[in-house]
Every structure is written in structure tokens, then in C-alpha cells.
Amino acid sequence: MIGEVPSSQDIDRAVELLVRGEVLALPTDTVPGMLKAMLSPTAPRRLNELKGRPSSQPVAMLAPYGGEVHRGLAPLAYRARLGRYFPGPLTAVVRRELLVELSGLESTLVPYRTVGVRVVASYWLSELIRRLGGGVWATSANPTGEKPSLDNLPSGVVVMRASYQGLGVASMVVDLTDPAAPKVLRPFDHREGVGLVSPEAPLVRARQKLIYPGLFELASPARS
What whole-number distance in Å separates Cα of residue 96 and Cα of residue 179? Predict the structure, then answer.
């Protein structure tokens, strides 16, 4: 267990755990997630095993705010008129070749033809990923069919808690392989109501409405 409010030392410890090959569960700026370092092409398979879903199911990459991936994907997000959610609750599906070019990763570490990438808006999570030296594979912290939570996770998952609870809504997923014709693969759904376990949950949601205007109204592909 790592401290309630991540300090610089907490972040260093989290990096050590990820480098060692551990799966780390923590609150992100959307929903609680499980992270694994991009050190092996089999890393996504381990996350899928923990969720109890097929090993071939795609797992997204989280990238830090202000990095090369962020700067490379931002123009695509703005061309698709979704820039106001970037960085933040927008997972952009791009071709593997583009991700490798932007991130400097070896192509052997990316076992998908297309990859969903989300640039996190959280400073400390961005710092964690930056200290790790690149992106991380990530998925929501829950067995398939259950709500994301940092409780009752499979054994072997290291939990990092923080006072910040995040948005409580899973990111919108948009196919940006052709920025001129973006396709919404998963819209926002304000009814999810997951992850907001703090007594201040309504205040968190109100603040996020100011940060991401139109977020909760963008609830169908037709309105994208």
C-alpha cells in the first residue's frame, strides 16, 4: 500500500514496482485503473488475465501530458473537433506505426495494429509515467462486468490510493486512424457513475463539467 496522497517518494516507489514487473492499481483522472510497464509484448496479456477476458483484447496506452505522444496526437484531436477533451477523457485509436514514431518504442512492444492512447490530465500520474521513461499499458481496475474500483482486486496487484478520485466516467474512445472521418467507438455515458467514491463526488463532477465543457452532454456518436 502506498500513501493516501502520492508524494515524490511514492511516485518513485510506484516506478520501482512497475519496472520490477508488478501490476499497479491506482486512481486515474477517469476511473481507477490497472497499469503495467511497457517492457514486454506480453504485458497486455497479463492485464487481460486479471480482468478475466480474452488475451487478444486490446489494452490502451497511457501517455504523459506534454510528452512527444501528446504533442503528436493533439493535432489529430483538434482536427476531429475533440481537442477540448485532450489531454483527459479521450482515448484516441491510432495506427501502431504512428505510435511507435511518436513514442520511440520498439514495434515489438506494441502487439496491436492499432492502439488506443490516452494522454492523462493528472500531473502526478503524468510524472509517474515520465519517470518510468515512457507510456504504460492500462485498463480499468475491475474484473470484466464489474465497476472499476481499487477494492477486491486479484491477488498480486499492488494498490496505490490517493485522495483524488478522478472523473468517474470511462473515457470516450474515438478512432482517429483517419482524422478527417473520426468514428466514436465508445461514447461518454454520464449514467455510469463509477469511481466516484468520495463524499465530495458531486463537487468533483461539477468541477469536471467546468474543465471539460459538454462532456456529459456528448453521449452518443451522432453528437460527436
Answer: 15
Q: How far apart are CA 18 and CA 31, in angstroms?
A: 19
Give pLDDT tens digits for 11-26: 899 999 999 999 999 9
Collapsing DSSP to helix, strand or coil, 135 comes out as: coil
pLDDT in tens, 143-182: 888 888 888 888 889 998 876 667 777 888 999 998 888 8
How many C-beta atoms surround the C-beta of residue 150 within 10 A?
A: 20
Contact assessment for residue 47 and residue 59, using Cβ atoms and an 8 Å cutoff: yes
Which ranges constitute the DSSP H helices of the chain? 8-19, 43-51, 68-79, 96-103, 123-132, 201-211
- Domains defined along the chain, listed by start: 8-223 (3.90.870.10)
Three-state SS for 76?
helix
DSSP summary character for residue 171: P
Terminal Cα distance for the chain, rounded:
40
> Where residue 211 falls among pLDDT bands split at 50, 70, 90?
low
Lateral strand order in the sheet of 136-140: 157-159, 23-26, 33-37, 136-140, 60-63, 114-119, 90-95, 172-175, 183-186
Q: Which amino acid is at 43?
A: A
Contact (Cβ atoms closer than 8 angstroms) between residue 167 and residue 50: no
Checking phi first, is residue 168 left (phi over 0); if not, alpha (psi -120 to 50) or beta? left
Q: Comparing C-alpha atoms, which of 111, 103, 108, 148 is closest to residue 129?
A: 103
